[in-house]
Amino acid sequence: MTAKKTTTEKLINFVGARKPAMMLSALLIIASIGSLIVNGLNLGVDFTGGTVIEIGYPEATDVEPIRKKLAEAKFEAQVQHFGTAKDVLIRITPPKTDKTKKITSNEKAKIGDQIYAVLKQDNPNIVLRRVEFVGPQIGDELRDDGGVAMLLALAGILIYVTLRFEFRFSLGAIVALLHDVIITIGIFSIFRIEFDLTILAAVLAIIGYSLNDTIVVFDRIRENYLKLRKASSEESINISINQTLSRTIVTSLTTLLVLLALFFLGGEIIHGFSMAMIIGVVVGTYSSIYVASSSLIMMGVTREALLPPEKEGADELNELP
Amino acid sequence: MNRYPLWKYLLLIAVTVIALVYALPNLYPSEPAVQVTPAEKTTLLGTGTIETIKSKLAEASLSVKSIDTDINSQNAVFHFDTPDTQLAAQETIRKALGNEYKTALNLAPTTPEWLTSMSAKPMNLGLDLRGGVHFLMEVDMSVAISKALDRHKDEFRTLLREKKLRYLGIKKYNKIPNSLILLFKDETVRNNAQTALKREYRTDVDFAKADTEKGFGLTATLTDLNIKNAKRFILQQNIITLRRKLNSTGLSEPIIQQQGLERIVVQLPGVQDPSAVKEKLSGTATLEFHMVDEGNDAQQALASGQIPAGSKLFKERNGRPVLLKRKIILSGDRITQASAGFDEQQMPSVNISLDASGAKRFSKITGANIKKLMAVVYIEDKYITKKLDDGTIHKKRVTKKEVISIAQIQSQLGKRFMINGLDSPQEAHLLAEDLRAGALAAPIYIVEERTVGPSLGADNIKAGFNSVIIGFILVLIFMAVYYKVFGLVANMALTLNLVLIVAILSLMQATLTLPGIAGIVLTVGMAVDANVLIFERIKEELKNGLTPQAAIHSGYEKAFSTIADANITTLIAAIVLFGMGTGPIQGFATTLAIGIVSSMFTAIFGTRAIINMIYGGKKITKLSI
Predict the structure, then answer these.
(1) ipTM surpasses 0.90
(2) What residue segments make up the domains of chain B, in order of their start?
(3) Pick from A106, A134, A162: which residue ends a domain?
(4) Which residues of chain A are within 8 Å of residue B470 when distances are taken between CB atoms?
(5) Which residues of chain A lie closer than 8 angstroms to B524, CB-CB?
């Protein structure tokens, strides 16, 4: 009886719209992967090794004279404003050939100090706001560790979801996850936004978030498979998406609210982080509605697949009014 | 229906009170301060000194906010209003007191006593929030291994000589990494040597026959275990030396930690000039003990430029020339301990301990040279960088050799001996420090640096704090508008959640970093999820025709497994993030994980308790949701 009631309600046909949605996803993923192959990622010093130095000027300043001054002092540096016109960010990427020479590491570590000294000659009132030096070996390690962490997270999740649901569900969750991660990274690649350690953290957080969203929908699908005995698989899935829709939107909204606060008020350093998260949350919300469940349909998940381990749940249902 | 037993409310109240108490210290801001400690343990930090500092600071019109003194632990902390006053005050105090006292910049907590007595302390602020330098240093282990090989070479020689096994030579073997090759004229001698050596170095060295055209060879390769031990030893020695070097720079709370087998993390809060610290850290120093050439006149040698054979001209710290014998009787890496103290006549002295092989050698030589003069030469390698006109960076290694001590050998010296005849406790202290620094066993390189200036640190705190507050308020407003009474209940839970996270982080004495703040903000956004799930479920159940009481009950019931599934998967991601092991990401992962766990408590248990209190056991027809 309860089942009838839900089905007679107005439903948005998400499952029916899965073909155009899949086209859109495919397009985004192809664009992302294409850009990653062609452009690659604009990796920050965290991964490439090199030096970043941020200098605060007492008043708004042009980057051109700084560039010139550094060129005169034979530094190959990129200079840009950071946040405000008073802040200048200088980036030096070391030539790759130095990698073998360990001894020069200490010298490279001093480049930041030297640049600060050179610029201080012209304007004694500048303040050193930040120096980041990453030796090339560290950069390589971080890149590898980041990849390993991502794979480990995926493996852990795969195992958990398989245990709680079924293997095809965990594949569906992973598909949605990869979808979100690839598109987020793809956007960073397409717009040449710097990809540093905090962005990697954001990507890993997106894995958690996207999964959270997907699991909620899956949970409902499992429940409805057991409850709506007469409905087809597509119908059950569509009903589940509709039932969880308001929750999906409300949670995304609250998360976006705090992320927007971080983005606008959190300062330059976590700008990239909050942007990556915002992209991830938006894409993740879309994917948990369209991608995760569509992939379940494509893999042919049926209610029978979930029946055996859920005996207790079925009994409980009968007791409900 | 929907009643909670009393103990559940008591539990909730208890958790709330405890969380509030332990979160509270964070509301008392830390103040910029200067810590003054005597350079020598023996010097007292009396009230007179403190009065002197006070008057000097008053002269420089620097206002002191408060002073914490602890005569027993020998330190005084002067609090100031701004970092600028703090810096100026440090200069003033340094000038007023000279070298006898060390001054260190500090961020002193202002937690009231009733809180500290319950060991409620504020969270530590990370370097990105308070300013400071983070270094990752790598020890050059090739040196460690080559030293281990040298040591084995010496030991093999001694052993073969003792066993009367004649060998042609022992040298490094390039064909196999980390190995030596021993050459013998006779095959049976080689085989006997192999047996003898094997018995002695069972787990440390692998031996194998390798014949060359020069003779019957025996390769000796250091085992992985041996190399690992050598590395560990060198790393420990470096950590100790670094700690000493840093302590002598007067920095407050330097953190030095081992990372893996080859790296050391150094964190220096409050350091404003990383270049000076780098100079201090990057120089390597060694020591050599030489006999003084007493038969020739150093002044004469200097003037004529004719240096006697077997001798070499050195200079003392005061510039006076000295002639020393070329032969090194002992090198710094044999020193295991050097400390300043007093001799029987209560005169300042330095006590030195040597390792076994150093002691053996030293005892033999000093025994043969009683009443003669022995000199300690301090050798410091520094790299000086110059930028040439064509843009290439030119690095020059500069070696500074200096005689830091000349002493008469009174008797045969062994494992422990003493250098006395020093002018002052300070001199003894400096000499001991140099000796210890000279024991630094392998060169060390900076492979990563993250420096945050104090101005950026202050900006980061402000930005982080603002974004948490604004984001939090936005969520509160949204929830109250969207879910009405239930929204307000969720808001209480959310507030408690925030307090709980802060309390747990404070109890753990975790270090709060900017990514950590991002983790907290994100948790706030995601913690609402549990409540959203429950409330949406209640709405659905109401639509399905359930009574309000039944809807509340089944809403919580049914949402639970979903919440658990969703949170556990996020927790898996957080744990993996933490396992990655890099500082900023770990901070993020820690707060995220704590947030997930505490949100489970507040969003499910906490809200249910309040909802039950409002609606439980009453006849209601409508829910404000």
Answers:
(1) no
(2) 6-25+453-615, 31-108, 142-228, 283-449
(3) A134
(4) 261, 265
(5) 258
